[in-house]
Each structure stands twice: as C-alpha cells, then as structure tokens.
Structures
1.
Amino acid sequence: MEKHKMLELVNLKSGYGGSEILHGLNLSVANQEIVSIIGPNGCGKSTLLRSVMGMTPWSTGGVRFKGSDILGLESSKVVATGIGYVPQLENVFAGMTVMENLQIGGYLLPAGERRDQIARMLDLFPQFKSRKSQAAGTMSGGERQSLALAMAIMTSPELILLDEPSAGLSPKATDEMYANVLLLQEQLGMSVLIVEQDVHGVLEITHRTYVLKMGENDFDAPSKDVLNDDRIRSAYLGNVQSAGIETKQEAATH
Ligand SMILES: Nc1ncnc2c1ncn2[C@@H]1O[C@H](COP(=O)(O)OP(=O)(O)O)[C@@H](O)[C@H]1O
Ligand SMILES: [Mg+2]
C-alpha cells in the first residue's frame, strides 16, 4: 500500500512582488519519510519552504498537508496544523536565554503543556540542562542549531522543514545535527523535509531527494541513486568515486 502522504505540493508557483521564483513545482513527503531538496544557490529552495509556511508575498497552486489545503494560511496557523520550521538564518534569538527561546518555540501552547514540552526538550537535548540561562548567541553553531530544532519541535509537529541545518557547522557538528534528524524520524515518528548544500551528507541520511533547477523540478529519485547519478556527481560531488558507498538508509534495511 502506498504510504500516506504527509505533504503534497502541486504546481506550486511563488515569488516576491512581480518576480516568479518557483515556476510550478511538484513534491511530496510520505508519512515518516525523510526527503531532501538540493540544487544550486538561488534556485528557490528556501522560497519553497517559505511558501509552505505562508511566508512568501504570494503563492499559487496546491499545498496539501495530510490532505487539507493549507495554501494561504498565515504562519502561526500552519504551525498549529502540525508543521515545524527551522529557517536558514537567524533561527534563534541570540540575546535571549535557552529557556526563553524554548518558551518562544512553544508560544502557541497552553502554559502547562509548554512547561511539559520544555522538560521533554531538556531530556532530548541534555546539553541544555545546565545552560538554561545562557544567552543563545554565546553558544557554538552546533548548539544553536540544536536549540533551533528544539524550538521547532516544541509544538510536536508531524512534519518538520529544515533549511540548511549544516550551514557553517564543523563536520562533527554536522554529524550530530544529522543524528538529531534521524532521531526525529525514528523516535518521534516525524516526517522531515530538509534543504541542504552539504549534498553528500544529506543524501546519506534521507530516503528520497528532489533536485531543483531554477525554480523547477529537475529530477527526483531515491537518495542512494542520486548519490550515484552522473548529473549529481559531476555538478556537486566533484566526480567522487561513489561506487560501493552504502548509505545509512540502505544499511538500515539490511
Ligand atoms: N525577500 C526576497 N525578495 C526578493 N527576491 C528574493 C527574496 N528572497 C529570495 N529572493 C530571490 O529568490 C531566488 C531564490 O532564492 P532562495 O529561495 O533563497 O534560493 P536558495 O535557497 O535555493 O539559495 C533568488 O533569485 C533570490 O534572489
Ligand atoms: Mg536558501
């Protein structure tokens, strides 16, 4: 049986003022699927996530979440339907403490539930337990990304959108971020849509990948096939020898 569709974009067009950036995109994310979006700088990856979140000046086409059309809803309503979002830049409040950032992540929740969720986040990310009153801006890049992720899952979303979570991180912090992404799916049952520049790393942790080209679909395929696709190897991976590379998702099916 086909897996239940969590998110479905049908002929999505979107842009800023008079300029159309997305020219009719199609994309889907199944229940508990981890899907990546890759493509050159400026091709519209962030705009795609912003369109889903109701953050672009205009969008047309179909944006369906669990079968309901959410296009045109304002961002807080989109969050309330069950979608979490970690933007590419400025995704924590640098001058505020870890605790205050978590409270902001859960501002839609009743106070009691917000408290319970903060306790859950401190269990999931124990590194924050002793640093509740540290200003977010004084933490490392990896810690800030973890905090941004914790903020976005305060509302227990069923789908989470991540915009280049590895940007600016060390290889070690990138691995930790990806481990967190797998944890969201494996332990919390979430679906994940992740935009990345770190093509090699993201293809290893995702099930399926969409390649965009100037605001349009180029192609999509299981991530393990994208890793071995000549178009991708020459454009993104510097033609690395990928034969014999086993992805983490493949390994998990053995
Ligand atoms: N706020 C904005 N106003 C006008 N144009 C924008 C804005 N944000 C992005 N763009 C343009 O939209 C295009 C796609 O940008 P973006 O979605 O950020 O690409 P990507 O995330 O793939 O690098 C680029 O040409 C960019 O200049
Ligand atoms: Mg971007």
Note: Confidence is low (pLDDT under 50) at residues 239-246.
2.
Amino acid sequence: MMSIGTGGRLMTNTDNVRDALVEQRAELLARLNKITSDVRHEDQAIESDFAELAVQRENDQVIDALGEAARQELTQINRALASIESGEYGLCTECGRQIRVERLEVLPYSTKCLHCASRGE
Ligand SMILES: [Zn+2]
C-alpha cells in the first residue's frame, strides 16, 4: 500500500476555490470586454434628437455602473487568488481569524469574517 502524501487535505479545498475564482474571473473579463466595446459604439451614433440623446446617456450610465461593479469584483477575485498563493486565504483581514467555511462558500472572495464585515467598512 502506498501512503498518501502530507498536506493533501487543505490544498484540495483551496484548489477548488481557485478553480472557481479563475473561472469567475474569465467570465468577468469577457463581460468587461463586451461592456467596453458597447461603449465604443457610441462614437458613430451622434443623435441630434433630444429624447434619443437622453436614452443614450442613460445607457452609458448603466454601462458605466456595470463596468464599475465588474471591475470591483475583479479586484476582489484577484486579491483572493493572491491570498491563496500566499497561504492566507480565508483569514479575516481585520482580526486575522479564520472566516467560516459557510461564508466562504457563499462569498469565496470575502476578506472579512462575518463579525468584522457586519461592523461596516
Ligand atoms: Zn474578523
């Protein structure tokens, strides 16, 4: 019988998380690319009609908000991936305690434990 190598248990756990995060990042990047190319279209369509213009502005704002949200999520994912690399994944950045697994399953890139997060930013 072969013996199983040391430290296998924990690694499997973060490997799964990393895979999920990498996948999520790829999706986000694709979405961001699409958003950015949508914004570019605006150059060709300069409408003099007032109502049209208003709609276009509104669209731009929505696109901006979407892009902003995606960028923020991307930052959080990158931070989580970096903490997996450094072995600090799952530790609260406030108090240094282990973040509950249940919380990490819902929010894989949370950087604070429930206690610290509920105290506000
Ligand atoms: Zn904490």
Note: Residues 1-11 have pLDDT under 50 and may be disordered.
